[in-house]
Amino acid sequence: MWCNTALHAVPTTPAEDPEHPEHERKAVEEQRRQLTAAQISFAGACYSLAIVVLAVIPGCVFSPEVLLLYAASSVLVFWTVLRHGSGRGIGALLQGVLSTVLLLTFGPQQPLIFFMLAGHIIMPVVIWHWVDLIHDLTR
């Protein structure tokens, strides 16, 4: 065969027999994919919630529109971490820059702002490890 396609990338046609092991393997792979997707969705929701809570409690940001912008920034950072576009340092830097821009544009200037920014810089590292752990456990 003169094909450059890797053997594992070639689609297989399972046998007609329902007892064939290929059917069980495909079912296990689909179940693993669904479990991974659910865990990743839960991790993303927790990350967005943590960013918004950090903006409310120590940051004293109470405007719903601004909180939606914080949530949108956390979704952007989570997406880049999930797609391996940013590692620990880049994700933390991106969330820190987005939060600082939002803070300078919309947020109140008060002493506890440091704790909000520190949390926004630490959380991408935590979520990067969490996503990495999910991928490692479901391989």
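Second entry:
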Amino acid sequence: MIENKVNILINLLKDKLQLIDQYFELTQQQTKMINKEKVDKLNKLMDKKSLIFQKIEELDEKIDNNLNFIKNISSVNQIGELNIPKNLFLEYQNLKEELENKIIKTHQLERDNKSLMENKFAEVKAELRRVRTGKKTRAKYYQGATQTSGYFVDKKN
């Protein structure tokens, strides 16, 4: 029974790894869209990432429930304390390690994307500031030139 539950746990981890891979691919695409400044495609990617993230959270809950069930039934604190075949334990360990590495890599890419977006936003703000200043200057300069007829200053007495 415990072996069966560990196999279920391993399958859940494999599913999570697949979702993390999809999330990572979308994050890579996000980097490209940020650089190309394609906002519409960027929004679609973020929506897709959000859906995948929800699925990951659901899987995490199933993984936690399964892991807690195994620990409670076996009265152990860690999977390594279980009396299961070594290859099963090694598969579990390898999956956990692969997941951790992929999550770290994805998190780093997310931070890079955030920084890239902040830089792009700062560029847009600077451009807006420049345009506003130009409009104000132009408005001040042309403010006195609204009259279309000429002035006669010289009067003959």
